[in-house]
Each structure stands twice: as C-alpha cells, then as structure tokens.
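Sample A.
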Amino acid sequence: MVGRRKLIAVIRDKDTVTGFLLGSIGELNKNCHPNFLVVEKDTTINEIEDTFRQFLNRDDTGIILINQYIAEMVQHALDTHQHSIPTVLEIPSKEHPYEDAKDSILRRARGMFTAEDLC
C-alpha cells in the first residue's frame, strides 16, 4: 500500500531556500502555507519558532531542514520534539559551518547507544 507523500520543509537562508525552490521542493498546503521560511536579518525568533511548530503539526511534513545557527535560536522548540517524523536535520550554511557538538539531534542519538550496541 502506498502512503501519502511527505514534503521537505526548509528553514534556511535565502540562497539555500532559493536552491531548494529551483529544485522544485516548494509547495503550498490546502491553507496556502508554504513549506519553507527564508530567514533574514529582520526575521524574529518568534517567526522562526512559529514556523517550526507549524511544520511539526502539518501532516504532510516528513523532514525539516534547518540551518544549525537558526536551530540554536529556537533550541527549546527543537528539544520538545520527540517524534521521528517529521525528522529534524540541522545542516550548515555558507557563513556558519556545521559543528557536530552543537547538533541537538546528534547529541540525543549518541545518548541512545553505547559502544557495545555498535559491535
């Protein structure tokens, strides 16, 4: 049985969102809400957090891609998300390289396994 397809939601800088839109991932749901947010200098933390929560609550979202430096701004919201779907992935941007020590999902995953589990 084929399930409903899931979207990738994006909370990123302008250049990255533009690239994703050119790759045809941009969509509007039945309420005309997009599956992306371009974060610019004047974007408030409340706007980012509200958009993140909207993406979590949409039944058509499978993955949320968020720049790591943006994720740090709304870390408390990311920490409350305990489900595997939608999956939240923190990724780098041009100006902010990826730092695995700051990745909340990776930190949580490391706590789930011991060295013996991996042998």
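Sample B, a different protein:
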Amino acid sequence: MARVTIYTREFCGYCARAVRLLKDKGVDFEQIDAGMDAARRKEMIQRANGASTYPQIFIGNEHIGGCDDMFALDRKGALDVMLGISG
C-alpha cells in the first residue's frame, strides 16, 4: 500500500473529511498538524508547489491536492489504484 501524508490543521472540516475517507478505506497515513507550526506549514507549502490551503495530501511523493481533489479521484476510481487497494 502506498505511503500517504496529509497536512492538516485543527477545526478544519475539509481535513476531517479527508482523514475520514482515508480511515474508511483502511489506509495507514501520517497526519501532520501544520496549523500552528510555522516550519511544518512552510514544508507543506514547499512540497505542494505553493498551495497553502488545508489539507494538502500526498500519496508517495505525488501531491494530489486537497480534500476535494482526493474525493474527485475517489469518484473516478483512481484513488484506490493510487493507494494500492485491490478491488
């Protein structure tokens, strides 16, 4: 299964939705709270090519975007493929 990293912040509804989808799929992921940590926020923005909204999600080294982007991939059936989940 692919390595997933998600940068989040507290009280973020989009972050909660994204985390819930990953949990529902049984995916192990690293959640990094970058909301109040300037160094982690800078790291997130650099990795996400300037994107500064929450969450920012990575599968392996590939930046897939935010919550809406991940749900769009899921609707197309591409998310499970990227995550290495067999149907």
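Observation for Sample B: The chain has a mean pLDDT of 96.
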